[in-house]
Amino acid sequence: MPRVGHFHTDFYCRADLRLAVLQIRSPVLPTKLRCFRKLLLSWMKTSGFWRTVLLSSCHAHHRDDQQLLSCSENISMAVLLLFCSEGDNVPDAFTLVNHLNDWLRLLDTAVQDSVPWRIPSSWRLLFGSGVPPMIF
C-alpha cells in the first residue's frame, strides 16, 4: 500500500484488470491540501500510471465551475464528479462506479449484472453501530 504522507488512504489493486485504486479515507484539511496534492502527484508520476481517473462527489449546493477545472501537471486525468445531497450516499457511489464501468468496461456487463459490486467492509459502520439494546 502506498504511503501518501500522513493522510489516511487505502490501496487496492487488480492486476488482471490493470487497475489500481487509491481510496482517500479522510478529508484533507485546507492547510494540508497543497502538501497532499504534491505527495499524490509525485506518487502517481513515480508509479507510471498511463491514465488516472478521479472519482469524487461534492455537495450539490456547493457546486461551481472551479470544481470542474483539471490540474495541468502533465498527467492524463479524467474526473467523474457526482453532485449529491447529504445522507446515505451509498446509491451515489454505485451510480459513480457504474458510470466508470460503462466507460472503461472494467467488468463485462453480464458479469456485472450477476455479481454485484463488493461493498467495502468500512461501510458497515457508515452511520454508526446503532443503539445498544441494553440502554432500554
Based on the model shown, name its key terms:
proteasome, 136 residues, globular, PSMG2_sf, Proteasome_assmbl_chp_2_euk, Proteasome assembly chaperone 2, two-stranded antiparallel ribbon, alpha+beta
What's the arrangement of secondary structure elements?
Layout: E1 9-14, E2 19-24, H1 33-47, E3 52-59, E4 77-84, H2 90-104, H3 109-114
Parallel strand pairs: 3-4
Antiparallel strand pairs: 1-2
- Dominant shape: globular
Write down the domain tally: 2
Terminal CA distance:
43 Å
Structural class: alpha+beta
Strand percentage lies at: 15-25%
Major sheet description: 2 strands, antiparallel
Number of separate strands? 4
Strand order of the largest sheet: 1-2
Question: On the 0-100 scale, what is the average pLDDT?
Answer: 75
Order of helices and strands: EEHEEHH
Q: Provide the low-confidence segments as ranges.
A: none
Protein name: Proteasome assembly chaperone 2
Keywords: Proteasome
Organism: Bagarius yarrelli (Goonch)
InterPro entries: Proteasome_assmbl_chp_2_euk (IPR016562), PSMG2_sf (IPR038389)
